[in-house]
Design brief:
There is one protein chain. This protein has one domain (30-203). The protein is 35% helix and 16% strand. It contains eight helices and nine strands. It has a three-stranded antiparallel sheet with strand order 5-6-7. Strands 1-2 form a two-stranded antiparallel ribbon. 35% of the residues are buried.
Length: 206
């Protein structure tokens, strides 16, 4: 999708117009010790996909404040110098993707990633939820569930858990694992044995 070379992106990503950009930090990321305690408390179950998942079972994007829906809210929250129009559509700004370190100046280049993908949530407990609860999960801005990231990196992740996919930046493993664990713990979602092993390894990089 992008015509840029990843290595060039990673080199140039640290600044916009020569000004360093901080990584976005959604709320609710636990300490390493808390994340390890939460991980130990999660139920371990096999991943069984019965083919019943449908993204429409997780309604997005809800109106969060004013005329801004969840996507627009996260773009404003995680961006730098974001300007929006009367419809709350971002017309300018900068976004630094914590997954790969790339910086974008077009909102169309940015996806809002669900840290714990919707299908993963479905298979690991959300199937039994009401549609209303699934919508709350899909639009959760009070935990580290929603992240503004490079669109094709988000697409590469898909619905994979950390044993099958990790962010390109190894320096982000610690925050990624803590965020994943917090979301699973908050929403009482189960994990697989392989997922737990991967998360343990990632937390050990903290």
């Amino acid at each position: 999708m992008k015509s840029y070379i990843l290595a060039t992106l990673l080199t140039a990503a640290a600044t916009v117009n020569g000004i360093p950009m901080p990584m976005p930090t959604p709320p609710g990321i636990p300490s390493t010790s808390s994340a390890k305690t939460q991980l130990a408390a999660l139920t371990v179950k096999a991943y069984v996909d019965d083919g019943t998942y449908d993204r429409d079972l997780f309604p997005t994007w809800n109106t969060i404040e004013g005329s801004c829906n969840t996507r627009e809210y996260v773009l404003k929250r995680d961006g730098t110098n974001v300007v929006v129009n009367s419809a709350c559509t971002a017309t300018s700004g900068s976004w630094k993707s914590p997954f790969d370190g790339a910086t974008w100046t077009q909102a169309s280049d940015v996806d809002i990633d669900h840290m714990v993908p919707l299908k993963n949530a479905w298979v690991n407990g959300a199937k039994s939820w009401t549609t209303s609860k699934r919508s709350q999960f899909a639009n959760d801005i009070s935990s580290p569930e929603l992240w503004a990231v490079t669109d094709n990196v988000n697409q590469a992740k898909g619905d994979k858990s950390p044993d099958a996919w990790k962010p390109p930046l190894t320096s982000f493993y610690c925050t990624y694992a803590k965020s994943w664990v917090q979301v699973k713990y908050k929403w009482a979602l189960s994990i697989t044995s392989a997922e737990k092993t991967a998360l343990t390894s990632m937390l050990n990089t903290c």
